[in-house]
Design a protein that fits this description.
Blueprint lengths: L1 E7 L6 E5 L7 H12 L6 H13 L2 E5 L28 H4 L11
Antiparallel strand pairs: 1-2, 1-3
Helix pairs in contact: 1-2
Amino acid sequence: MSRAVLLSCPVCDAVRALDGRRSDHSKTDIISTAKRHLRTHQLSESKAAIRAHQITYEALEILVSGDDIDRLPVEAWRQPTATWLPEDVPVPAAQTAGATLSQTDDD
């Protein structure tokens, strides 16, 4: 089994996976990944900082088979309904309510 860290944007519910265990990624690295994505939302600096820390806090380490690790959105942020996620991973609430995602192909 392989491990990945699943990040979820609290603004648009996009998801992004980072290969490896949670302990393989420093808090600074995760915050940096979150900030690059949050720039697409044009938030004020203080709101962006809060959201970046929220993404880091809510990062979820998941186990997936070696065959499925390549199916995770590791290259860019993606809408949960437009990418593969393991069945037991909760889909963000806004996506199940029909929210849409405008931009997701950034780092």
